[in-house]
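quick one before i forget lol
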Amino acid sequence: MDEVGYGLLDRELLRRVSEEIGSKDVGVGVIYVQMPRGSETPVDGLTIWTKTEKRIFWHCRMHPDYFFFVRSERRDGHRDALKALESDMRQLLGADCNDSNATWPKPAFGAGAVTPGEPGRSIESAVYRAIIEAVSHANRAAGPMGGNTPFHAGGGMPKGTDKSLALQIGSLAVPIPTFHRSTPVSEVADFFESDPKAQAAVIVDGGKPVGLIMKEKLYRLLAGKFGLALYWNRPVEKMMDSSPLTVPAEMPLEQASQLAMARDFQQLYDVVTVTRNGQFAGAASIRSILESITTLRTEAARLANPLTGLPGNEAIQREMVRRIEARRPFAVIYADLDYFKWFNDFFGFRKGDELIRYTAEVLGQTAALAGGRSDFVGHIGGDDFIVMTDAENPETICRHVIWRFDGGVQAFYEDVQVRGVCDRNGNPVARDGVTISLCLIQWDGERAVTPEQFSEQSARLKKQAKRLPGSVLVSGRIGDYQHGEIKR
C-alpha cells in the first residue's frame, strides 16, 4: 500500500485516483469495512496485510470504519477484481465463518467502483458516489450478527430517519475570515499569506454574505499575466465569486450536500456559505459535509430494522420525545396486521417477510403522499409499525393506508382461495385473509404527556380494533380513556 490518509476526499487521494483512472486499462474502487461497535475483533492482521498488498494504494481509517482505495489491472473486469479483494479481506477477518455457534459480531463489507465522471463533473463527485455505494452495500448485506443493518434501498436516508440524526447544515458551519466588498485585493492576499491555514474568505456587506474568495483561485489570478497590475489595488468585489452557494442554517445536511455536489466542477471545492436570518453565520467545507453524510447514513442504518430498513425502537423513542418537547400538535398512528401468524404458518416465513416489507412500503409511500415532509415512519418490530405526523387531517393518511393495503394484499395469496383463517390460538375464523388495524391518537401539544401514555392508549384502542372484522381505524385523543371512535 502506498499511502495512508486521515480523512475522506483528501486532495492527495483525489490526485492519485485521477492518475490511476488516467492509466490505460486500470479500474479504481473503494472497499469499505466497518468493524462492529464495541467488539474486540482484531485488525492487526488486516493492517499488516494492507501494507504489502499492491492492489491497495490508499487507506483511510475513521474508527470503526476503514476505507481501502484499490486498483485493478483491467477496467472491464474491475467489479470482479473488487469482489476478489473483498473476499480476501473477509477470510483474513474470519467474516465468512459459518460456525452456527458463533456469537461474536462480524465486520460489514461493501465495495463501490469509481466511475469517471461525465463532462463537467469532477473526480471528487465520482469518489463520493463510490464511497456511498460501498457503505450502502455493506449495510444492506449485514445481518443481525453484523455491525450494521440494511441500508435503505435506493440510496439516501431511510424514510422516517431519526430527526436527531438528520442534521442541519448549520451544525457544520465554522467561523472563517470576512472582508467588506471594498477591501483592496492586496489586503486579502496579505491575510492569506500570513495565515497558511485559511483557505477561504467571505465577502460581506451589512453582515450579509455577497461573495466568496478562495485562496487558491486568488493566487492563480494574481500569478497570471498582468494579474498583480490588474487586481492588486482594486476592491475585492472585482475578483470575488458573486454567486457562491449560500444556504440557510436550517437546511437539512442531505439537501445541502446535493446542492454542493451539483455545482460546476470549478466550484466543487468551494466552501458552502451559511446564513441565519439572512446574516452570515459561518461556512462548511465540502470535506466536512461529505464525511458527516457518510457518518449519518451509517448511524441511521445501524438504528434501522433489519427487515424493512425503517427506524427501530431506539429511533422511535427519540423521535417521540423530540416531538413532545417541541410542544407542537401531532398524531401517532399505530399499525398492526391481523392474522399475520396464520399467514406466516400457511405461506411460509419468506412470504411473511415480503408482506412485512409491503406494509412498510404502504405506510412510507402513503405518509410521503398524504402527510408532511416531517412525517416519521418506524418499525416497532414484527408486524407492528408507527407513523408520527403533523398532518392537519391524519385520518386521510389512515384511509389511504387501508385502501392501498387491502388493494394489494390479495396478490400475496397467489392462486390460493382464502375462505378462512386461524387466530393466534389456532381457532378457525371466518375472514378473507390478512387485514390491517390502525389506531390513531392525536395530541394537542398542550396536555402533559409521555411516550408511555401513547403506548398505553394504543393498546386499549388496539383491543377494540381486533374485535372488528376487516381493516379498520379506531381513533382517540391522548388522555381520553374512554372507548375510541371507530371509523370504517
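fyi The first strand starts at residue 3 and ends at 5.
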